[in-house]
Write a structure and sequence with these properties.
The complex is a heterodimer of chains A (442) and B (297).
Chain A (H helix, E strand, L loop, with lengths): L11 H22 L13 E2 L5 E2 L33 E6 L6 H11 L2 E6 L3 H10 L6 E4 L4 H6 L3 E2 L7 H6 L2 H4 L11 E13 L27 E3 L3 H11 L10 H18 L2 E2 L3 H7 L4 E5 L1 H10 L9 E4 L8 E9 L5 H11 L2 H12 L10 H16 L32 H15 L3
Parallel strand pairs in A: 3-4, 3-5, 8-9, 8-10
Antiparallel strand pairs in A: 1-2, 5-12, 6-12, 7-10, 7-11, 7-12
Helix pairs in contact in A: 7-8, 7-14, 8-14, 9-10, 10-13
Chain B lengths: L5 H4 L2 H22 L2 E2 L6 E2 L10 H10 L6 H31 L5 H9 L6 H12 L4 H8 L14 H26 L2 H9 L4 H12 L1 H17 L2 H6 L8 H10 L4 H35 L1
Antiparallel strand pairs in B: 1-2
The chains are: A alpha/beta (442), B mainly alpha (297).
Chain lengths: 442, 297
Amino acid sequence: MTWHPKERGATRRDFLMRSGGAALGLSSAGSLLAACGNSTTPSGGGGTGAGGEPVGPGGLPLARPDKRVTLPMWENPIESGLEPETGGTFTVFNYPAYFWKKLLKDFGKKYGVEVQYTPFDNIASGIQQLAAGSVQPDVMEMTPDHLDQVVAGKLIKPLNLDYIPNLQKNIWPELVDPFYDGGSHYTVPYTTYATGILWRNDQVTEDIASMQQPWDIFWQAQAYKGKTALLSEDRETIAMALLRKGITDINTEDPKQIDQAVSDLKELYGICNIKVGDSQYQTIPEGTAWLNQAWSGDPIAAYIYYLPAKTPSTTLSYWKAPKGHVPVQNDCFSICSTTKKPVLAHLFLNWMIDNGIAKSNFINFNGYQPPLNEIEPTGLLEELRKVRNASWGTTDKAPPENLQTAILTNDDFGPDTIQEMTLTAEGNALWQNGYSDFLSGG
Amino acid sequence: MYPRWLWPGFAFPGVLWLIILFVVPFYAVIGVAFGTVDPILLSAVPIWNPLEWNVGWVNETLTRLAPGGDLWVVFVRTCEYVFVSLGLSLLIGYPVAYYIARHASRTKNMLLILLILPFWISYLMRMLAWVNLLAPDGFVNRFLQFAHIIDQPYGFLDGQSSTVILALVYGYIPYLILPLYASLDRIDKSQIEAARDLGASPFRAFLHVTLPLSKTGILGGCVLIALPMFGDYYTPNLVSGAPTTSMLGNQIDLYFHSTSQPTIGAALTILLSLFLVVLMGYYLITVARATRNLESV
């Protein structure tokens, strides 16, 4: 920059000196503040219990697929035989576009309420909103790894299963009395999914499913630079890197293992300029991405809703590891403590796992499979094919064979599975800071 | 006679606005940064009394932001993106503002309206439009292929730094041009004429009169766009999505929205603000000096 001769322009040296002065001031302020408290651990936020075992928020035990936990009821459930409340608004608090609004409208019509759908960005921020009182929902989507937190914080209410007969009748036995919520005190399962790899056969030449370690594909994706992505979830991303190295404890809190996983993930910058995001159900079928870590619901949604009519359905492939090596998850629904309609909230939980409702929500909108006994994989694929043909005017004779991989059965759940579950506060920080380090891109 | 409080009283709404919408929220962020985390809900518990502040999170974040820390690279990248974007914005914006202020006599109002036009569409929508334009089968790639400039679609959206920088420039440049135009428009033409009368060529007159006199406008415009650019996170998210192009705003967003450590998000916000205060201080000093010099002429 040229200065007017009459002006005495500040030189770069002046600027640096001033910046330095400010930095010095900042560090002095740091010294002064050193007299204050200095802690980065939420006391009582989980750590070790009286017996030395790791515990979660509120000192509740950490559930694992092979370690069943029954959560304490912080109040008695509502009595049986009460009439549902009518009139006013019934609020469903959930991920955006994770429940078919037409069905919710039908529910409202049936029980004489107006159903309001309030979305949250992610489950963590949803819980923060609930805790802060900025929302007062009646029911809320819940994940098992956050259950300790909402139970200890008394944010959700215990259930009276008399109102929810569909749980016993329609749901896979493994999830009627799940390991994370023995006796189903607080939750009713909603959807199930596994984490695997979704790719386009017309771009990716490797036979991923036949590879000795299919997760290695991300570390061999030089040819797919800029077209390769991982899920934007700390647990999923780091767990994938652990599984690639044969570590199946995806709830580990060993800093060495986490550091190594993050370090491995960072190799992907140079290999394929890895991206992160959660829209693989759209980007893969549309061709803007070719190779993606993906949930099992993604290939289904991709096939039904996003794969252009002119693109053969065999373009999409999905792989997931065998049981015990594939992370499986299930989402649930719970009744919020803020509800003014507890009876209706129970009826909602029962209604959403009605065979017809749950299946319609899955096939016509959601793409994430409910754990219904009634669903039979071959028949389901046939139904998906019909939905695609009807939506796109295509004439697919058969669904892509590979899509069967994305269908889960009750055998995929049980004590010998792996599932991302609640961590201690220190463990949480370890995973989150590791993910932040990966996201830093350096 | 008017009462003495009348004229200062006009500042009251502005001061109130500043207190409610800036001072209080900013102190809340400070309270969170120096606060603790609820042991059960893992949500931020702000500490309002400075004597009780917990400096653990800020210290930890400062260490991570320092050279060698895992966030240092994001800090450097953010500075690079912002300064390159500022440079490009100036290169594009200055001639535009100069033309409107000095040469667009009858079309001035029309051009100003055209400049403001992008504000009618939300930033997010404009960025999403670019995502479509830059897609492999988007208009830009199709044109470049049609013109035989490229054979295959170029991966604009494949996690490129250049795309993020261009998106930042596109998104914020109107905010630079408007103050720049105002500053250039205010320059007394007789000063430039005097330079020309004294034998200066048009270029020398620009270099020694117009440019120095528009310095406050340049700095004002730069500050105006640099501040939101430093905190931007959705531009790299939308047009890239790669960690190698992430900015500090992405880290703040991550810690506030997707983790149980909002305190780190708040600490990052405070430290970024302190850095910006240094830049802002430089701007204020320069403007004050320029004003003094003008007054003394």
